[in-house]
Amino acid sequence: MAKRSLTSLSAADLQGKRVLVRVDFNVPLEDSGAISDDTRIRAALPTINDLSAKGAKVILAAHFGRPKGEVNEAMRLTPVAARLSELLGKPVVKTDSCIGPDAEAKVAAMADGDVVLLENVRFFAEEEKNDTEFAKKLAALAEVYVNDAFGAAHRAHASTEGVTEYLNPNVAGHLMEKELQYLQGAIDEPKRPLAAIVGGSKVSSKIGVLESLIDKCDKVLIGGGMIFTFYKARGLSVGKSLVEEDKLELARELEAKAKAKGVELLLPSDVVLADAFSPDANSQITAIEAIPDGWMGLDIGPDSLKAFQAALADCKTVIWNGPMGVFEFDKFAAGTNGVAHTLAELSGKGCCTIIGGGDSVAAVEKVGVAEKMSHISTGGGASLELLEGKVLPGVAALDDA
Is 40 a known active-site residue? Predict the structure, then answer.
């Protein structure tokens, strides 16, 4: 279902209007309290700047950390307000609470184009409960609603869903629109061949995604710790590699499903083994049929990387979610780095490359090829749920186009 977006609203629609914008400012902090990565703040700038330029009064709502419904001084949005002010080149007023007299007074004092950041919405337990009265109070600060927080769109919370009952119109911000365009587009009407690369340590966290992707893709490439559950299901010895014993039957079913549908399901043929889970462990490369006892697989091997590169060569759309190995350890990062470089090359040849959130984003940034990808998703769980074909409550609540 296509959703109405901010693009559809002109300066005439927005001039002087109070606009509540749900953003994802859940950024990582260093021990000193400084922001270590401001990507999420920068990602919201196009929407904030557009609204400001059209004369709207921009009221930002965000969560930060998991304060469990009570005020936590360490989870105030003060550093975010300071950084946003630097990026916008103008003052950003922060409220002491997201609802109540202080928020009402600061919003009432706004001039057209001003930006106010409401304090952490999760300081109230009612936010995550999607409480009606709380949603009403939050919505009462504004007239129009823009959701630009794709990373929180899979949650039915007061600030992502509840407020839409009391505001009008309710539209997607520029970031949200781009996320839906790429991720939904890749699933609903991709340029084929369509390939998905799925990594990560556990099959259990990617079951829904794998099932959905086998339905929709021409090729599915699997890496990361979850491969050992598939090998064990085939009757192979996996040493002390990570295995989910309760998912062996599921692994067999997924392989059978892919075969029945004519989908190329590729698992690595060789792996990089370690004698301990450590960055300086002893390592060796073996074929998957020859994994010795006492060793664990921490990356895909060089032959597997070549096979993956060959399988991806003719693809027109590639979605990547999850690393090929323990890429945080340089010794076991070759598979993940190799996939990142391969996708960067494919992008240059006109392939649509989508990095579906989570650790894959950290991987392409670490390798330095992030800007070469067609789209990097800002959502972890939200990206996965969208790829699974689930309806995201924060998206469903927006006006239809």
Answer: yes
